[in-house]
User: Fold these one by one.
Assistant:
Number 1:
Amino acid sequence: MIPFEITILGTGSALPTSQRYHTAHVLNVRERFFLIDCGEGTQNQMRKYGVKFSRIEHIFISHLHGDHYFGLIGLITSYLLLGRKTDLHIYSHSMLPDLLKPQIDMMGDELSYKIIWHPLNFKRSEIILDNKVVKVMSIPVQHRFPCCAFLFTEAPSDLNVRKEQLEKYQVPLTQIYNIKKGADYIDQNQQVIPNSELTLPAMKQRSYAFCTDTAFMPELSELFENVDLLYHEATFDKTNQKRAAETYHSTAHQAAQMAKMSNAGHLLIGHFSSRYKNIDKLLNEAREVFENCTAANEGMVIQIPQKRLV
Amino acid sequence: MIPFEITILGTGSALPTSQRYHTAHVLNVRERFFLIDCGEGTQNQMRKYGVKFSRIEHIFISHLHGDHYFGLIGLITSYLLLGRKTDLHIYSHSMLPDLLKPQIDMMGDELSYKIIWHPLNFKRSEIILDNKVVKVMSIPVQHRFPCCAFLFTEAPSDLNVRKEQLEKYQVPLTQIYNIKKGADYIDQNQQVIPNSELTLPAMKQRSYAFCTDTAFMPELSELFENVDLLYHEATFDKTNQKRAAETYHSTAHQAAQMAKMSNAGHLLIGHFSSRYKNIDKLLNEAREVFENCTAANEGMVIQIPQKRLV
């Protein structure tokens, strides 16, 4: 199956525990790899869980609290040691290059690869990447420091052709590329054969929303509408809703409300406060509102299957 | 038993592997805690192995390659989140505060505690700390970046008094403090009772040498003479001696030579290149020269027992 797969590397909030690492998710879209947040220890976690470390080309950093970016300098260093040549694109607050500059300068050698820094816009949502496999939108959220959620939408797949129909209409090979892209076929008699007769229904474009470190923002549900997988932070349980609001975090209940309002396919909660030794309480709270909910764990892999549109 | 105990948190060299973390050792001397190097993930490893995280007062950073200090910013941040009040002493190259300054400044809040930076001297050995429990000497070594080894020597213990002798000579309670410190007792008749008649032989002062990221330096053996535990880097095996010399690292064979020349009690090797999936080769190589050798592993705890001088 063509992958659209999320690997969870860290699920804790600011204070790490013996079980939970800081935030980092890896998204594999058709064997292209995207890292979302990069807390301390991310490179170790990638090794541990067999992530294709060297193939990450784009890194998205939601905000500049340490638990979301302290692993970046180690990763940048390891890529240098490994002689990386491929450009590395980093999407973050514009301050990040300055924060890391003294340490990068200290490495002594020139970097063997180029880092291309992309400053995020914290005023409005923007398409920050649109390539062959995925479109990424940054979405400002409400936290103590400027912070963005990210919505990843798979690029449209080529259509699968129906061989028996190609034979029936004697479609020449030269036309197949266009037909896979959605074109109709016009035969020698100028008769139009609509694309729908030549191909199977398209595959649904899969999507993943990563939404961490934010107060509850019901207005985001429009942007997340029908997302296949919503990752939403659930730092606290609902008895700590006041604390959540004060610190610009969300409760498990609120994460589930967001999933429900967005009509998400599946909710994944994480970024758990270190006060919860056992997160069943948070999971149960979320499931009361939105049944199809999973609590994130280090090493968890979630595959979103392809479906045909009907 | 009064502890003099080393906990190993990371044993890898520059590139982390799925099994090995970056360098960090914790030394517990009589329940005072000292951190030596602080690679990425050190705070996670401390949690994992139950190290008394908050009680570390002194951190020693051998040099400014990332695998020896990238975990420091996370630790500094966690101490802030935990409301630490106790001063934190950091011994390192004088550039370290500047490297971390942009990130520390970014934390927004004032730190709840004071960081006291102690620049290391890379020209000659120095006593950098001498308190109630330990004396620490920094020892310049030869690496691509200025680097120090550290020698930890336990402070002399109070002597144990022999109760039957105190009774025999009718020593008043007010004199016991001085006798435990080594004083003779002069009785009412001006007769001198030598301390050795009143106390058991003293405990040997235990010692630990931490020597990482260095070319082989036979001249160090004088400074390490009779050390109880020598940790010496063994990045390579002896077939890679040329590579070791070029990169200012040591082989397992050289680490063992150092232990032998120093008359160390026990050798611990670590900082293994990621090329060695199995480090038996390195361990066997070292044991050929110095039998009492252990290969470091994450979570390993080495207790140095107290012994009386005869």
Number 2:
Amino acid sequence: MTTYRHFYVKSRARTSPDINLKDLPGSAGRLDIVARCINAAFWLSYGIRKNVIFHTILHGEPNAPVYIRLEGEKLRKVSPDERSIAIFIGKALKKFDEECEIESTPGIFVARKSFEELLEENKDKNFYLLDENGEDIENVEIRNPFFILGDNLDVLPEEKEIAIRHGAKVVSIGKKSYMSSHCIAVLNWWMDRYEE
Amino acid sequence: MTTYRHFYVKSRARTSPDINLKDLPGSAGRLDIVARCINAAFWLSYGIRKNVIFHTILHGEPNAPVYIRLEGEKLRKVSPDERSIAIFIGKALKKFDEECEIESTPGIFVARKSFEELLEENKDKNFYLLDENGEDIENVEIRNPFFILGDNLDVLPEEKEIAIRHGAKVVSIGKKSYMSSHCIAVLNWWMDRYEE
């Protein structure tokens, strides 16, 4: 049986499909962060992790919240660089439909969804909220995980409250404040060792 | 006393300053890899690791080898996204001087230098060559480190031979073949824990 790894990264990126690829950190609302997180979640040197599912909700103007999901088993055509990943997020935003979830390109899904709805749908998994002050990962059993991470700013208190209400365990990979993409690289590596 | 962490990543990127920023993975010769490695080497959520020194040698046409070094203590103006980092590498390539090392922008240095010369200059450090089949990092004492990594292809046998001749220890972070940038993120995290 495949054990899936779910990662959710909160984002403040803009929700308009006209992404300025020359300015992902600026006018696109730190879309570079989401792109690097997706890179860290899926890519190995030779291929894609099929057991990873990546979730994000873009909270920026003008059409928030937009939920985007990438599934490793189905993901095709995307390259691991920020620009390529941003282009595919743009395609998802372009095909967004208020009424129903759309598979915009192979393995990438877009829909209207709130953070609370997302957790509700995934309550069969174990939620782990990343926070410097959480319990050290070394002392936590990671099973059927759904990790919740902030972007460059932390998750809001009300989001943390929603996560806790859904049973999230607050875990830490260290006292330093790491970039979300580096957290994901470390978590993937940690779980690889764990499973070996 | 600050303990410095050195990372070297071999690169096949082009050595011409006219980098096509829309095609880092293609015509620029996988410059996206170098950019992500630099991101992983230096950035924390709030600031830059001042104790990191990053080295690369670009081996692509038309002017190889070009050696580039970034020093965390002096690094300024660069943003953590691939495009910004690639722009600064372009500036370094533009200011390249056959005769002497140039500081092209704050904290970024460019010169003519071979891999063997680089190791010779750094022989006061301990070389660790990353390889899936090396000794597990858990069983290795890391002290005053100079890590040597390949890009998407491994280091060549003759480069490995040069490293071994300079006393490099072959170490592994796992059996999977990880992207170089993910290796660096894990190594930084590993050493953070180590030092705490």
Number 3:
Amino acid sequence: MPVPAPNLTPPFNTVRLSHVVLGATDLEASRRFYETTLGLQVTDADADAVYFRGMEERGHHCLVLRRATTATAQAVCFKVWSEADLDAAAAFFRGQGRPVAWVERPFQGRTLRSSDPHGLPVEFYHRMDRLPPIHQRYALYRGVKPLRIDHFNCFSPDVDASVAFWSAMGFRVTEYTEDAETRRLWAAWLHRKGGVHDMAFTNGLGPRLHHVAFWVPNPMNIIDLLDLMSTTGYVGNIERGPGRHGISNAFFLYIRDPDGHRVEIYCSDYQTVDPDHEPIHWDLTDPQRQTLWGAPAPRSWFEEGTLFEGLDPAPPTLAAQPIVAP
Amino acid sequence: MPVPAPNLTPPFNTVRLSHVVLGATDLEASRRFYETTLGLQVTDADADAVYFRGMEERGHHCLVLRRATTATAQAVCFKVWSEADLDAAAAFFRGQGRPVAWVERPFQGRTLRSSDPHGLPVEFYHRMDRLPPIHQRYALYRGVKPLRIDHFNCFSPDVDASVAFWSAMGFRVTEYTEDAETRRLWAAWLHRKGGVHDMAFTNGLGPRLHHVAFWVPNPMNIIDLLDLMSTTGYVGNIERGPGRHGISNAFFLYIRDPDGHRVEIYCSDYQTVDPDHEPIHWDLTDPQRQTLWGAPAPRSWFEEGTLFEGLDPAPPTLAAQPIVAP
Amino acid sequence: MPVPAPNLTPPFNTVRLSHVVLGATDLEASRRFYETTLGLQVTDADADAVYFRGMEERGHHCLVLRRATTATAQAVCFKVWSEADLDAAAAFFRGQGRPVAWVERPFQGRTLRSSDPHGLPVEFYHRMDRLPPIHQRYALYRGVKPLRIDHFNCFSPDVDASVAFWSAMGFRVTEYTEDAETRRLWAAWLHRKGGVHDMAFTNGLGPRLHHVAFWVPNPMNIIDLLDLMSTTGYVGNIERGPGRHGISNAFFLYIRDPDGHRVEIYCSDYQTVDPDHEPIHWDLTDPQRQTLWGAPAPRSWFEEGTLFEGLDPAPPTLAAQPIVAP
Amino acid sequence: MPVPAPNLTPPFNTVRLSHVVLGATDLEASRRFYETTLGLQVTDADADAVYFRGMEERGHHCLVLRRATTATAQAVCFKVWSEADLDAAAAFFRGQGRPVAWVERPFQGRTLRSSDPHGLPVEFYHRMDRLPPIHQRYALYRGVKPLRIDHFNCFSPDVDASVAFWSAMGFRVTEYTEDAETRRLWAAWLHRKGGVHDMAFTNGLGPRLHHVAFWVPNPMNIIDLLDLMSTTGYVGNIERGPGRHGISNAFFLYIRDPDGHRVEIYCSDYQTVDPDHEPIHWDLTDPQRQTLWGAPAPRSWFEEGTLFEGLDPAPPTLAAQPIVAP
């Protein structure tokens, strides 16, 4: 059994993933992409940063673009339940021998920065500025009508180790891919907020950010986005899909932003709040785990990802090869 | 401010609503309705009861029909996080002066039965038989493709009192309707699992069950159900909708089962996991709270509901009148 | 049998309905409604008129708004196959004793103006300015994403007489409602272009224009329009729906423009090109003919309509009452 | 200009494509595929043949499967307007030096069999048995909910010659792909019934049937079919898609039946009834003509097709290479 039992009494209470901070080498072009094509709402902007939220989010931001010379990611960020959870998180990371810092982040209260054992930078906060609801201001909806951030997916050089650490933090595995021969994990999906995942790990040169995903109402919105991107100069930014994942059962599309950061558009996964929710096992050789309908992912999807600032990724310890399009 | 602050350290951890037990005066006809027309999956049946689950549920049942001479409801039932939570729940109800019993329920572990201050019967359990996933067995999908139970809505003779009690249990208000004159609650929606509600209360002769709701993938499934019901002898069972609720922003349809038990088909509400998620206020005089598109609900929707076994409902303390179709 | 046999060798070849010219008492407000909310494309505008087309239309206009002091309609307009058909049409109308005039219309070639026996003004042309395709310029789509004009519906004081005349012109009945007692037609749907109708007649004070309909891709677009109208000040302009018609099997919504002109948003009817396509009979007492799902239409839907310029409507000869919401 | 002007006064009036007769080497397996998975309705069956119609069709059949030792096609079949058109068609084919035969076909009146200049077998009839409407018997809908046959697509060894012949018959070109260098046609789409096509030709070893297409309500039905096929043993029968065609703008999926006959599931093209409807030109080097979203078709899609009974196909005269997935 390659996945650890869920830790039902975790050291601190992570509510959900919150946001990601991405470098943009052409901030104006990237803003245009996320605002006009994807349809995220700009909540603040200055000369060097743009903040976005989804249509149903009341927290100030789920995505921050920062003007940068290289298109790296600063951190993947999470919201905890209470101020006490923030201090408990700090204690947990210190106890694991990880570096801990309290950092200043606009529009947020106290923010803890640390990293997982592979150096993947993570940030936790308790309080972020709250904004008035806009989910019923339908005149503002555009693009793919993104409702909220859904999850992160990161390359890990050792998925077993990543899952062990994140499970200790209270993340619960919902589905996983195993290499039958070695009994090693190829990939795993872990959640806090009651869907299939807040965070996933996939075997590869890492840590790198594989993608950030946004939740949309239904598959028709994804078709609308494809039509729009195909006829507004973004046809080359469509990487994979549309399709139904075997894992998660979600309807998906993968696109690349102007810097190559990968974005998943995602809907239709399922509820996982039960503490006794059983993880689903997939074999690495089953092509339907990737796409239920059988189409393999392109090679770029397995190889390309976003580096984290100042972090050299390590090659994976597991050499198994995924199924790719010829 | 008519809604209490959320209790972020509740006496016990309720994971989610779980199921409802309904009396069926013609068990075969009711089974046909839920199995063939709605599309719930039968997980067990004997001479006097039928158990159902939604397509993504792994717990044994979300609906139990029991052969009965009167079409009452036995209880609204909830799942708690751990066995310790079950004992803590028993202590809580005892502390509130409510009767507490441990009852035997098929396919479930220890089950606590109690009631809220108006006598609304509630049951809590920690462990239910788990079944293999069927959410990717698409040949089994039929009817409205119901994925899971979503919420209960009950008439309450005193919504302020109901909300106070359920808030103390850790349910958090997401939206509410207030009578501007009296500052009394007309209705409130409260959740545990991170959507708009697990439980709602609406002013009226109560306690009575107003409806149980099932989550479906998207509005097209609801249109499919309407077409099916309209042409298979169930056109008279369509009560209200389809439409978009102002409150919850969900796309909805209300139908009546062969005994008149009201079922809502529901999708597209929003995520509410943040502990600082602010409730949305609606005024009782705003017709768009009911249906964003303006159509009022029929009178039956305000007046009819399912009695609970052996419980005489009381008239509401709030006399304000809702907006109904002329 | 109340409907005449189709005339399979008509006196002239009408290709399809083409456009309607409507008076607008506040031209700017009406333009905003059709352009921004409905999403029709403006193809030309001057101080006193605005021309629109749907997203897949290449003819110059399907709707013309003209600044006016009263919100009347000028004519319902049709395209014929060839110039010879135009002359044949003139001969047909003359032969029926109807007035015939050749009128100047911007962006069109020779245009014939006449009227049916009740005085309903009709115009026919052969050539209209053609515009480049925009159906794949997805950045232009907005509102309900209207693709093309679909049909007209007019009140007639004598539906039997209207159907007889229009059948002689080559329009073919696809569905009809009969008053069982009198064997008189209550309403009929007639087509040229291969759908359920280009033109329909319904019993009532007439001739008046009941509505003009635009075809949209699918029901989700209609839901989007409802959400948009409900939250941008147009909730009072939603008159009936959404629903599925029994007659035509189409998914529909009826809205009113700022002058009260009724617009139907329509999709999902069926193909009727076969010359031996049999009309479908509905009884006037069947509520599902209006809405398959059972909801009756509001009284306004039976009583209100757009007058034609300079034409006094006559009361209907058939007194039968439709089914209306209480 | 590589496409001929439309013949607006054709020698006979073809209403629409009607049906195709396909050989099935395992009739039971093929019936199961079309009836249970696709959802066509069986209208008649005997030991050696099964007849199907779509949900809105009233003609007896749009597809005939005949037990066969080789999976060939018998003919592509069309409905003409009147008996006189049938005789005019016979005269036309004789005048073109093509063989003409009157054949017996079950459930049809007089049937003319001939072939185009490449030998592609065609059949025309005027009268087919008519069946009662079932489009509102929603309990019968299953699979992809196929409404009607939409078009044929055939490989032609000389698309210019095919288009010249079929244009003379009154088929009108709506879109075409041209090899810029040679000014030769690579492919063309021609219609009679007012959509993008009843018949298309694509360059290749031919005549062979490339595919037959069925119209479905909307893209969600195609997603449902993919989910169903993927989980009922048909994942290997999914060949290409889902996607949006550049040409036709339709949403599509290509699947293969148990004998490898290719079926397209198709929706969302546009109306083309105007006699002055201008054809749209595509360049052979534009990958978006195949799939607007950029994904190339697999090699099998360009190479594989169904042979016609007793007909040896010829290699194409145009050597240009299409764009294929690597």
Number 4:
Amino acid sequence: MVYFDNAATTFPKPDEVYDAIMKSMKEYGANPGRSGHKLALRMGREIYETRELLAKLFNIDNPMNVVFTSNCTESLNLAIKGILQRGDHVITSSMEHNSILRPLSSLEKEGVELTIVKGDRKGRIDAKDIAKNIKNNTKLIAITHVSNLTGTIMPIEEIGKLAWKNGIFFLVDAAQSAGVYDIDVKKMNIDMLAFPGHKGLLGPQGTGGLYVREGIALKEIKQGGTGSLSHMLEQPDIFPDRYESGTLNGPGIVGLGAGIKYIMKTGIENIRKHEEELTKHFIEGISKIDKVKAYGPLNVEEQGAVVSINIGDEDSSEISYILDEKYDIEVRPGLHCAPLAHKTIGTFEQGVVRFSFGPFNTHEEIDYALKAIFEISREI
Amino acid sequence: MVYFDNAATTFPKPDEVYDAIMKSMKEYGANPGRSGHKLALRMGREIYETRELLAKLFNIDNPMNVVFTSNCTESLNLAIKGILQRGDHVITSSMEHNSILRPLSSLEKEGVELTIVKGDRKGRIDAKDIAKNIKNNTKLIAITHVSNLTGTIMPIEEIGKLAWKNGIFFLVDAAQSAGVYDIDVKKMNIDMLAFPGHKGLLGPQGTGGLYVREGIALKEIKQGGTGSLSHMLEQPDIFPDRYESGTLNGPGIVGLGAGIKYIMKTGIENIRKHEEELTKHFIEGISKIDKVKAYGPLNVEEQGAVVSINIGDEDSSEISYILDEKYDIEVRPGLHCAPLAHKTIGTFEQGVVRFSFGPFNTHEEIDYALKAIFEISREI
């Protein structure tokens, strides 16, 4: 089986991740921050270690500014709804995932002004287009780092500067970049960074997080027990407790920590280089196959390890079905929860067949996929 | 080590739970409902099986009315914020956890009317007190099934009848009862049932759920990718997708399914009987120790496997510390995220030392704890 659906969730995970999850469940599977006993303290310490690892990875000064969530979508909802109020203006792009577009669309109905800057046919966003749309009441710019459809890398450092100069909060969706591309919240002027735990960071599903810059007070979207200031009926005003109501996914967060340690040990630049080579190999291969239409920059300088294609006018689901059934290759067809991005690149009707590569994919797998695509292209 | 903190999270889990989680991560750790390939479909099927098991356990007709969340707190927030609007009246009790009190307290500031019915000194809620407080605009009654402080079992069937007769929605917090006590949403007229996965249901942390009766449309608290109706910028109006934005905790939900299967195989009545015997044994033992003050009904007919005590006027944290350090017994001191419940039973200043038992505790462990309590009571 060849797994090329790493943009949905990376598979497999490093063995260290499986081992860390099992160890935490079997040896100290208690509730962190809820009791003072040995097991609870151990779980609390291990969770804190993951906060520290994330802080180190993203150049965050204080690990307590990392909030754990259940996935990147929850992180984005918390950031967006926590900061925007009726009358505020927000700028985003047509390349966003529904995890940004749907919360914004829901706030638009409640009186938030929304501008969606359009990408070009390769899925590129121009910082100048964002600059042009800044108004007096612009409070937030929310942009993905790497498109989940075309892999396009967005100019987030440039947009970060723009946001900083204009006193606008800058939210980055690192769903496709965390763990593969360098992210430095200080250098890039990122005020809020949303990331999943189960993609590039190689942790398990059920984990994610949001970095919130010191001094930003978001309205929380959930209230409940935090194990802190339990005498109060008001949600405590403490980071990260205010945003972490209820029992955290302890073993999941420990597994995420193991994923980050694996990345640091391997070297993020080595992982990126490996994925770039696979992507380049794949792009070169498909460019030689007649009938294949490929989307996005098709250039690893501008693109993450995501390549979307179609074969002729064939429905993307049909091609994916053949890849799965006949070749045991797992890819993702359809709209990828990014409808405006598909409209931007002109694939809203047909969808695309998305290939997304991870650290454990090989050049042999790419060759095998290219052979499969070639054969299918001859048969249809 | 003796673990008596099962009300915070059950520990250990059955071996089947560990095995199911590992198997799902290693063999089919893909993203459910996001792709059509074999691994994604397998994960989707396994998640659906957990929905079915929950439906069977709680007598729910349609498994699609079970929404997965990251914990019981999220479930309660979704239920409470999804149904209440400015001008509505809600009745709850002083025995609730902050996971009910804090969301309600936050809504009160936005114009929701809140009545908190007081329990008696044993933590009991009288359905008549709820009846007395029903008004024309009462939309919701939100009550815990079993108190996390005193273990008191609340008359939810009686309250359910009352709610049904008056056309009021009934939300039950099953944080301390799911997996141990019989819950029948039809017989008990429960409109919404919030439950954690990692307590009595023996699943891992990072799991929880909310049953929502057919025909109730809650406002969602998060929007995002659902893998369904991806072409729309509006959140889809489909159960359970509307409430499950972003990647689910696949392996966690599979582990939860294994926990429920373990419960069904063992027999929920056998688990309950075992916990009742342990509780009875413990209550009888502490009643013979001078200086021990015990709270709650102190009667297994009226009480779950949670017993809270103090020794003289000693601070509850100090006693817990000695139990941990000297005896290797893990309990939970303090306020247990239930400040009004502590006020109700008169322990707001001192806190209590909470012992909570699980299916894997033994009578020998109870004897050992009683001996420890006796020794501590002689020394202080």
